[in-house]
Amino acid sequence: MVSVLRRLATWRWAAVAIGALALAVLPTAVGAWPVAASSPSPDVLLARVRSSATVAFSGYAEANGTLAVPDVPQLGDLPALLGGTTRLRAWYAAPDRWRVDTVKPAGEDGTYAATGGTWLWEFDPGRATLVTGEPPVRLPRAADLLPPDLARRFAAAAGPDELRSLPPRRIAGRTALGLRITPRDLATTIGFVDLYADAATGLPVRVAITPRDATTPALTAGFLDLRLAAPDRVLLTFTPPAGVQVTTTAAPDITALVDRFAPYMLPTALAGLARRDVVAGVPRGVATYGTGFGLVAVLPLSADVAHGVLRRLSGPPAGPLKLDGVADFEGSTIATPLLNAVAVRLGRRFYLVAGTVGEAPLGRAVAALAANPPPRRPT
Amino acid sequence: MMAPDVTLAIATTGLSKRFGAVLAVDAVDLAVPTGARYGFLGPNGSGKTTTLRMLLGLVFASGGSIEVLGQPMPRQARSVLAQVGALVEGPAAYGHLCGRANLELMDAAGPGAPRRTRRARIDAALERVGLDAVGRRPVKAYSLGMRQRLGLAAALLRAPRLLILDEPTNGLDPQGIHEVRELLLELNYGGTTIFLSSHLLAEVEALCTTVGVVDRGRLVVQDELAALRRLTGNVVVGTPDAERALALLDGRLAHREADRIWVQADDPARLNAELVAAGVRVADLRAERRSLEDVVLAVTTHGSDRIAGGTRIAGSTR
Amino acid sequence: MILVELRKLIRRPRTWLTIGLLTALPTIVAIFLATTKVAPRPGEGPAFLSAVLANGALYPAAALGIVLPIFLPVAVAVIAGDSVAGEASAGTLRYLVCRPVGRTRLLVAKLVSVIVFVLLAVVVVAGVGYLVGTQLFGSGPLSSTSGTSLSTTQATLRTILAVGYVGFSMLGVAAVAMFLSTVTDSALGAALGALALLVTSQVLVLLDAAASVRPYLPTRYWLAFVDLFRDPVLWRDVGRGFALQAVYVAVFLAAAWANFATKDVAS
Known about the structure:
The structure holds three protein chains of three kinds.
Chain A: H1 2-32, H2 42-50, E1 57-65, H3 78-83, E2 85-94, E3 97-104, E4 107-114, E5 117-122, E6 127-132, H4 147-157, E7 163-171, E8 174-181, E9 190-198, E10 204-211, E11 219-227, H5 233-236, E12 245-250, H6 254-261, E13 269-270, E14 273-274, E15 287-290, E16 295-301, H7 303-312, E17 318-320, E18 329-335, E19 340-346, E20 349-355, H8 359-371
Parallel strand pairs in A: 6-12
Antiparallel strand pairs in A: 1-2, 1-11, 2-3, 3-4, 4-5, 5-6, 7-8, 8-9, 9-10, 10-11, 13-14, 15-16, 16-20, 17-18, 18-19, 19-20
Helix pairs in contact in A: 2-4
Chain B: E1 8-19, E2 22-28, E3 31-33, E4 37-41, H1 48-55, E5 63-68, E6 71-73, H2 77-81, E7 84-87, H3 99-109, H4 118-128, H5 144-156, E8 162-166, H6 174-189, E9 193-198, H7 201-207, E10 210-215, E11 218-224, H8 225-228, E12 231-238, H9 242-248, E13 253-257, E14 260-264, H10 268-277, E15 284-289, H11 292-299
Parallel strand pairs in B: 4-9, 4-10, 7-8, 8-9
Antiparallel strand pairs in B: 1-2, 1-3, 1-5, 5-6, 10-11, 12-14, 12-15, 13-14
Helix pairs in contact in B: 3-4, 4-5
Chain C: H1 2-11, H2 13-36, H3 49-52, H4 59-67, H5 71-90, H6 92-97, H7 103-137, H8 152-169, H9 171-183, H10 187-205, H11 235-260
């Protein structure tokens, strides 16, 4: 009788333990279930990713960054986007008709893109803003972290000799084909970009960016839920709720803004990096340089903005700037595995130089700006 | 020992319980005849309560088997315990409720308690234990004796075939003790088997028909009370003429205390005739029987807290 | 047996005292908000609290947000931790078991009574929240966090769902406390054990280094009740929260059963 009882107790505990273990392992097991899919060649997949902007979808994605960028107001959402988890809900019908909500613990911010302009909705202060026009240059926003947007940026820059296939995976319940882009550009901080696209449509569903000499990604963005169907039109239209203050503004044209206080004609090449933005007519005061992966952006700052930025960057995680062969300067540098930036005063001019290149190429670019100050645009 | 043809209300064979390294109950073979009033005696820490708990399915045995009312325990606990009333290690109740509400909850909790008769049964049980006039006072305002009575009432609710009671008179005044004894006798005459654990020899001696003594986890004595209290072979004689009696009974004298003499004699009547014939005045004369105390003391070792013998009343059992 | 446990629950003064305390906190917060009109800064403080000043109809949700992180789980842990251990230390457990009440049956009845307590608590908190909110702040049509306005039916439905979800979220804590309640005879010990798990979970949820275990933490999806007020509703975390709590209840109730069914009742 005793042993029966003891055995009964043992059986009960064993059953409970096995049940608990099964329940704990179940999600992992489902995720690890092997995926059978025949992969096309990497360049075919790349082409499908590039042309996937027409695929309508709705879904839920999370982006996770581990880059510590100092919280400078002039950088907008960038520090939060690169240094934390962003939860996104997206409804995408066409490149100019979509909605992305940034899900926050106690509210959300919505972006509704439509032909007439872009609605921005912030729940917590209860604010609706209609932004008209699309600026040529703007700071990154949460919607840029959606896997399709992010992936197509890298896909556009990748060359056929930088590609390699990855084994397929199951992402957001769908079979996804993998592609690794390893940039040949030695200046860039990007080691490789892993990109997964839906096997059926080519829609990118996951992106992971790993810095050079690193093994774990510094920035990942992936869908957790995905439905490939055109979202309901009702979901894409925003009507400001009653009693909410509505503002209408034109999109800030940073280029025009900069031109007002710093009408410099930035050169067509900087420290060996070619200028990327189309230079039609007179060269403008804001420029990007480099290849698809090793990018450098140069943004002149006004004196008061620059003083504010430099004051913010006077301590960690920012560090002091070192420049060889430049006489009159002061500046700070932000170094992360992926993104490096320099805020600097060169004589009486102020610049923010940032990019996905190593600290050395960035330093050379700043030194080039110091050695050959861009001429003022003739008025 | 028991006659083998008697039906048993409780029968255990080799019942043992081990708590870690301590063997609290060691191969106990209980045999409680149906209809008996069984007194379960033992010093504190002797395994009395543990045995009781095993009978009730509260504690699981480490060895041996238990049959209660002819069915194995704890396997048939549901059907067995529905016919058993119990009071284990003092009464317990929800303090914020009144006695009646407590009984209602307890009655509704288990099987075999039709809602239809609940009110009547509770009334009857409360009346039996003398709590029918308490009213709606919460139990936390009860005295110890009242709680004990409430516990008894709970045990009696469903007219059990077997009552298992642990120190049922604890906390009662002499009047209460008497009432409880009368109540138990009455129930027993009605056919209820009573299994009563106690450390009070007098209580067991006054009430029980069968006695089991447990010491350090072992059942050292188990027999009918009448058999245990057998004649010693001595006759106690009270006489004002002790000196003359001594002379007469030379060689048969066992012991003397002033006017009382203990005489070895098989037949008290013959001794009386002999004394009277010799002109010895006999004030009283009776055949001596062993007291339960003698029996118990003879078989138990000295525990940390010894059995209270005779009419002495020991403190709490816990 | 379930009815017996429910009667015990309802007739126990402590039940109502606890629920009274639970409703007192949001009421006090509401009174302060209404008199000072100082809303928490956007993005700070409990969910919806800054939006309440404009619309009192949101206050049931805000009240849930106020009691959700600490007060409600503490109350649940105390009640559930007391469920078996309390009976054991009062001595009534032995009488229940030899009544006889099947041990499994007793556990299920206890769980049901804890569930009823949780539901009672959240419903009363939300109900009082609605009364207090509409009285102090006035009410208007509810709008979702996405800025769309909700019909009265929608708003009511979502509030009810949120109340249900918050209640359900407590079941994991309740199951753990009940399991510990069968392990120890000390009701306080069981409650403290469950609270220790709760605090650990809440710390780990915020810790990026513990991201790998995050989906298993009982408090991981607690705040997902806010998702019920999005438009369209974000079901992802709500569904996961439900499933996770169900798993916790299943595992810990099974553990409680495995432990209690062969345990000596020695009190």
